[in-house]
Amino acid sequence: IIAQVLIKLKVSSYINKWRGPLVNWGLFLIIFAVIALNRDALFSQPSILLYTLLIVGIPLFGLGFLIEFIVFKLKVKPRNRSSLVLLSNIKNGGFAAATALALFGDEASLPGAVASVLIIIYLVILTLRVKKYSQ
């Protein structure tokens, strides 16, 4: 509803200039809050973080590299390839963290925060790989 109101008011072009930083800051605030709320659990039970990293990281990177390999063998263009890889395995970890925090409490939000951090790392790796293949 808010988006439609902003479009009707013709301020969307102004907002589009700030969209990237606003999204980045919003994601930062969610991840920061979730990690801060789980600080004690992270330091007193580091195994929670390790298990979460494994459970989130293996499918994220494994599926991503598998899909990337398949579309590479099918000779899909690099830009389309990265789009297919993202479509296959990127989920909204920030939203999951915020929802879990609101509905289930502090510790339930940790996997969403970890997923968000791993997704950011994966996106950096994917960007570097696309640049490598484009050359």
Polypeptide structure, described:
- 86% of the residues lie in helices and 0% in strands.
- It is flat.
- The chain contains 7 helices and no strands.
- With 135 residues, the protein is mostly helical.
- The termini are far apart.
- Helix 2 packs across helix 6.
- It has helices at residues 2-8, 12-37, 39-44, 46-73, 78-89, 93-104, 110-134.
In round numbers, the mean pLDDT is 81
Looking at the chains present, what oligomeric state does this protein adopt?
single chain
Low-confidence runs: none
Tell me the β content.
under 5%
Number of strands: 0
Helix content, binned percent: over 70%
Structural class: mainly alpha
Largest sheet: none
Shape by Cα distribution: flat
Individual helix count: 7
User: Nearest-angstrom radius of gyration?
Assistant: 18 Å
Short descriptors:
single chain; 135 residues; mainly alpha; 0% strand; flat
What order do the helices and strands come in, and which of them pair?
Elements: H1 2-8, H2 12-37, H3 39-44, H4 46-73, H5 78-89, H6 93-104, H7 110-134
Helix pairs in contact: 2-6, 2-7, 4-5, 4-7, 5-7, 6-7
